[in-house]
Amino acid sequence: MSNEQIAILAGGCFWCTEPVFTQLKGVIKVESGYVGGHTENPTYKTISNGDTGHAEAVRITFDAEMISFESLLEVFLVAHDPTTPNRQGNDIGTQYRSAVFCQNEAQRAVTVSMIAKFNQDGVYDVPIVTEVNDAGTFYSGEDYHQYYFAKNPSNPYCMAVAAPKAAKIRAKYAQLIKS
Asked: What separation in angstroms does the CA of 3 have from each of 65, 107, 123, 176?
C-alpha cells in the first residue's frame, strides 16, 4: 500500500534538481515548475527576469513507506549549495534560491531541525540560507522542461552541471538509488 506524499524543493535550475530525485527509490514522479511568487500562471520567460518572485522548483511525489521526507531533504541539502542566497553556480537571481516549500508542520519541523543540525555539524563552512516556506501554489513548468535531463543528456549544461549532481548523489547515497 502506497503512502503518497509531496515535497516541493527549490535548489537552483530545475534541469539539475530533477535528475537528482528521479533516481531515488520511492520517488514516483518529479515535476519541474515554479513556486513562491506573486503572479498567477508564471512561465519560464516571466520568471527568468526575477520580477515574479517565483523559484524554479521540483514537486516530488514520493511513497513515504519507501523513502522519507527526511531522506529527500538530506539529499536536497547535499546535492546543491544551500549556502548561497539567490544563486547556484553561474545561475544568479531569486528564481535560483534555495528553498523548501513545506506541505505541513511535520515537514517544517524536519526542515528546521535538519538545517540546524547541518549548521551545528559544520557540514558547510558558512551557514545554510535555505528558505523554509509554506507550500504556496506550484505551477507546472512548460512541457519541454519536464524530464529535461533525461531527454537531453548531451546538452552541454546538463553534462556540466546536472550530470555531476546526480552522480554525486549516486555515489554518496547508493542505498537510495533505484536498481
From this structure: 6, 15, 31, 17
Segments forming the whole domain that contains residue 33: 4-176
Q: Which residue has the cell 546538452?
A: 155
Express each pLDDT in 25-64 by its tens digit: 999 999 999 999 999 999 999 999 888 999 999 999 999 9
Q: How many CB atoms lie within 10 A of CB 39?
A: 14
Cell 547515497 belongs to: 173
Spatial separation of the C-alpha atoms in residues 77 and 42, rounded to whole Å = 26
CATH of the domain at 164: 3.30.1060.10
Residues 97-133 have pLDDT tens digits of 999 999 999 999 999 999 999 999 999 999 999 999 9
Residue 13: active-site member: yes
Number of domains composing the chain: 1
Give the β-pairing of 139-140 and 27-35.
antiparallel
Catalytic, out of 13, 16, 102, 158? 13
DSSP codes of every residue in 6-39: EEEEEES-HHHHHHHHHTBTTEEEEEEEEES-SS
